[in-house]
Structures are given as structure tokens and as C-alpha cells.
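Subject: for your reference before the review

Hello V.,

The reviewers asked for a structural picture of the protein, and I figured it would be easier to keep everything in one thread rather than splitting it across files. Below is the amino acid sequence we used in the manuscript, unchanged from the supplementary table.
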Amino acid sequence: MANLTGFKRDNTSAYIEKHPDANIQYGVDWTDYLNASDNINSATVTIETITGDASPLAFPTDAATDVNIAGDVVGIRLTNGTTGNVYNVDCKIVTTNGDTDSRRFRIVIGAKHL
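And here is what came back from the structure prediction:
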């Protein structure tokens, strides 16, 4: 499994709590998953759509600029989201060796407290 620093885990999957106003980049680190001779060549990220959502979780600009690769880490910038909603986010990679894989995590929208 990819490293998900800052993410929490329950009996369903990995997730992160996000405030609706937060505009932040999350990193999915594939270092421990890839062979030493392989690197991420491209990444595609999709966000689950919830019907009737007034403020859906989204890329602030668009996926072309809000998803980036730095070494073996895929950075995903997300904004918005409706309080109480849980969104599934899929991150699919293609490596320089032509291998593909994907991982799913959840974004839980709510008030964050210290």
C-alpha cells in the first residue's frame, strides 16, 4: 500500500478529514510500493460525484494543474466539499515500466478541531 502520511485509517479504508474551506494538497507516496528502478510516469485522479451536492469536492483549477508528481509522490490539491459528505478519491498511476495501479481513499468533510 502507498504511504498516506497524515491520513487516518478505519475498518473501511484510509481517509482524511477536511474542512470545507480548506484548499490543500494531499500527498500519496508510492516509494515503498515501486521497484527501485521504476518511477511514476503519469497519474490520473478522479473524485466521486454526489448527486445534488451544493459544494462538491473539487480541484481548485483543474486536474491538469492540481495533480502533480514529485518523485514517487502524487500531489493532489482539493478544495470545497459539503459538510457531512464522504467522497471517494481514486489515484491511478502509470509507471515508466508501463505498470499501472490505483488506490482509493476517502475525504470526510467536517469541522476540524485541534
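For the response letter, the relevant points are probably these. Strands lie at 8-9, 14-18, 24-29, 40-47, 67-70, 73-78, 86-95, 100-109. The radius of gyration is 14 Å.

Happy to draft the paragraph if you're swamped.

O.
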